[in-house]
Amino acid sequence: MIRLLYISTARQPLTPEQLADVLRVSRRNNARVGVTGLLILGGRRFLQALEGPEEAVMTTYNRITADTRHFAVVLLAREQIETRQFAAWAMGAQAGGRAGEGGTISQAVDTLITPITDPSLRGYFTGFAERQAAA
Fold first, then answer.
1. Among the listed residues 110, 63, 78, the one whose alpha carbon sits nearest the alpha carbon of residue 4
2. What is the pLDDT of residues 58-90, one digit of tens each?
3. I need a surface site. Which of 17, 18, 107, 113 has the fewest CB within 10 A?
C-alpha cells in the first residue's frame, strides 16, 4: 500500500456546487478501487492525500494530473505504508475560508486530522490550513 500527497492549483475558483460534484465523483471512484484520503481546498489551492493499493492510487493520481481543471500539480510525498491514516474516508474534505459555526479553516482541519498519527502528514495539513487562513 502507498500514500501520495500532492498540491495543485485550480484554474478557476470552484463554486460549492462544483466542489460537491468533484467530491461525489471522487468518493464513488475511490470507494470502488479501495482508495482513501483527505482533500483540503484553500482558495484555488488543493492539498490532497491518497492512500491504498499502489496501482489504484497511481491510476487515481494520473487521472488527477491529467485533469485540465487544475495545473501545477506537485508531488510532495510518496511512501509505502502499512496502515491507512484515512481508512474511514473515501475522500474526507474541507473547503477553505470559514468552516461553519464561526470556526476557521485551521480549526476545521485540526478536527479532521485528529486521528492522523504521522507527524509529517499532520504538519503538511496543518501548515496548509494556517497559510490559507492567513491569506
1. 78
2. 999 999 999 999 999 999 999 999 999 988 876
3. 17
